[in-house]
Prior knowledge:
The chain is α/β, with parallel strands linked by helices. The chain contains 13 helices and 16 strands.
Amino acid sequence: MSRFRSQSVFGATRAILWPRRIRRPLRQFxxxxxxRIERHxxxxxxxxxxxxxxxxxxxxxxxxxxxxxxxxxxATSSAIIQVRDLVHRYANRTALNGVSFDxxxxxxxxxxxxxxxxxxxxxxxxxxxxxPTSGSAMVxxxxxxxxxxxxxxxxxxxxxxxxxxxxxxxxxxxxxxxxLYGLHxxxxxxRIDEILARVGLLDRAADRVxxxxxxxxxxxxxxxxxxxxxxxLLLDEPTTGLDPGARRDLWQYLGILRDQEHVSVIVTTHLMxxxxxxxxxxxLNEGNLVALGTPEALTREIGxxxxxxxxxxxxxxxxxxxxxxxxxxxxxDNHVRLEIENGHRFVPDVVEAFPxxxxxxSVSKPTLEDVFIHRTGHRFWNEEPEAETTVGKDxxxxxxx
Length: 401
């Protein structure tokens, strides 16, 4: 019988057949693969990243560009990531429409948006797996388009899809990953023990990953992304499929990475409660950057309270409230929605003014969901805004920083 081993390249797993009669050391295999890659380096530099991956897999080697990195481009500011006027178009739609923002060193930065907002496209560009239509993305002083090989040495990437080989042990998964980054021998074994201890799995190093829980497997994914001491860690919806306890543990560990390791962490998410844990957020909608700032500052800009009124005829009620109280009243999902100071004092007045018209009501402090509504005119999960909704002065797609 034959054994299967796998190598993971930024989430893409390729099965390699190892007959029992073959006992060639893996180090020799990587040495030969490295020589073959170097012979083709000049061809790769002008080829899109997706073609490089295909070429590398065809050569039974890795998809990492091992070309000697050049001198990093001097950063124009202290930002660890600089995105400028980033545009990406597919055949029938625009995924990113002139997005610009900075990420500071040792910052936990969130990319928040519903499905189709462009956050995954942006994530792929930052991780060198996609070339934008126009604009630029600088990460750790390196251009994601012009210097992908050098950049991959300085970032860690954890994709939403699982990349660990469940038939291997935790140590073996990291051992293979270390060889992809040129780590060997005692240095690699020391780093494996160090990173397994940091993610709380050193005592399970010899256990197969298939025996691990979902949260423990996700920690192995993190360990793979951090094995080579990256300056930036990119995670694509890392808590997908995890139970609440595992989610909490993961976010606590991301905070440790930021505070103790000084790693800049960029996380994509569609969950409001996770976005609130970030130091700063970029909120995306249909390819546009609609909000940028700390969660506290974004919710504070709304001011006051959010009042929702359920009525028999919400359109008519909204018009009457505007006429009588001279406040903005909008219809959203068959509710009248108001952003108003001292909402608890306004509610008795509006109920008394329209007896019998209001079936139920709620008063709450603004949330990130309210920020999204305020900036776009529709709820987070609506594919299209309601035709009758016009929230405040900001229209859908307008950039605000």
